[in-house]
Amino acid sequence: xxxxxxxxxxxxxxxxxxxxxxxxxxxxxxxxxxxxxxxxxxxxxxxxxxxxxxxxxxxxxxxxxxxxxxxxxxxxxxxxxxxxxxxxxxxxxxxxxxxxxxxxxxxxxxxxxxxxxxxxxxxxxxxxxxxxxxxxxxxxxxxxxxxxxxxxxxxxxxxxxxxxxxxxxxxxxxxxxxxxxxxxxxxxxxxxxxxxxxxxxxxxxxxxxxxxxxxxxxxxxxxxxxxxxxxxxxxxxxxxxxxxxxxxxxxxxxxxxxxxxxxxxxxxxxxxxxxxxxxxxxxxxxxxxxxxxxxxxxxxxxxxxxxxxxxxxxxxxxxxxxxxxxxxxxxxxxxxxxxxxxxxxxxxxxxxxxxxxxxxxxxxxxxxxxxxxxxxxxxxxxxxxxxxxxxxxxxxxxxxxxxxxxxxxxxxxxxxxxxxxxxxxxxxxxxxxxxxxxxxxxxxxxxxxxxxxxxxxxxxxxxxxx
Length: 466
Ligand code: F3S
What we know:
By secondary structure, the protein is of the alpha/beta class. The chain has three domains: 33-222, Aconitase, domain 3 (2-Layer Sandwich); 226-331, no CATH class; 346-458, Aconitase, domain 3. Helix content is 37%, strand content 10%. Strands 7-6-5-8 form a four-stranded parallel beta sheet. A four-stranded parallel beta sheet has the order 10-9-11-12. The protein has a two-stranded antiparallel sheet with strand order 1-4. Bound molecules: FE3-S4 cluster.
């Protein structure tokens, strides 16, 4: 099993070695000699020539070199606001912290206030033991440094740590057609697919440099051609498929190619408050089980509504997904718990961070199940992850449910469940999750909602679910 930089374990992540993480297939990434020349505007050329200082010069040279690798001919002005994926301060991100410090020392700030991914830990709502805390402190010994630098470089607010930044409660919602340089794969996928904004799957560090410049190189998912689909995904399931399973199937099949999904407008009327959670989870599963940056859904997502099957390239491939295919995918998931048949020790709900609708639905589901079983305490520690804004909105909107959940012992942490599982001390726990992304990057196991509900109430998985 692979070890990652924090010493924790990576689960079954299939895209570490297969994807470029740019939304552009590996086959298209070329290093040409001599490299194609990017045409810069006079203002960009001044920065490139060092007339605006050596730090900005380094930033633009890096961004230009990155773009040239993918054949970009020009830079484009960014819109919306930045969102950055670096959310943990550790020695593993030392080079980025050095760059951040240099940018801050030069007095530079991002082109608009930015949000960031959730932090790895939430001591208040998901505490660890004192012994574990000393390890956590050692692993994340540079959190204060990261927070200080982020605030200097233009972070919007010290509470703005959530991967679901695009939700209205968080308010970093790009508009259709906005050019972005984001790096959080689930947020990239949602911005591209559900909102019709345009961002590549940028790496961490490149996101910050683009945000400082307010520019990104134009290639891949920023172009009309790069947004054309090369897969037709034909959904023939008898009922609405579980978004995590549909996303997992698509990601595993297409890896990082753009797909055009048909057969879903039977179930989803469009992109709205009710469907945002579904589209978010589907997209995150495509982006983690594969490396998908964009999908179109016929009759649902904005570009598909406007352009229809004109988004399909000639010679596209077809992948049919029916009930049997989803069953096959689920059966292929490995059990990575050290004690394969051990009782789950925690339930993690929400990765990416929950929408308000999802938190409301899960809260009510747990209350109903607890009342039906006549229970007053949950059977296994349970956590619903969301931004501080979703948590506040949920508690305001559902005070009775929120009170009962608290009494039962359900917590609402604001950190990242995957990162929590990836720390050395927590990696050994048997975590049950409703997220295929948490499953892929850790040793957590994925279960369907009914099984998780029974587990939460009784502390045990239902018979036949092992
Ligand atoms: Fe968000 Fe962490 Fe999951 S950043 S998508 S909660 S892995």
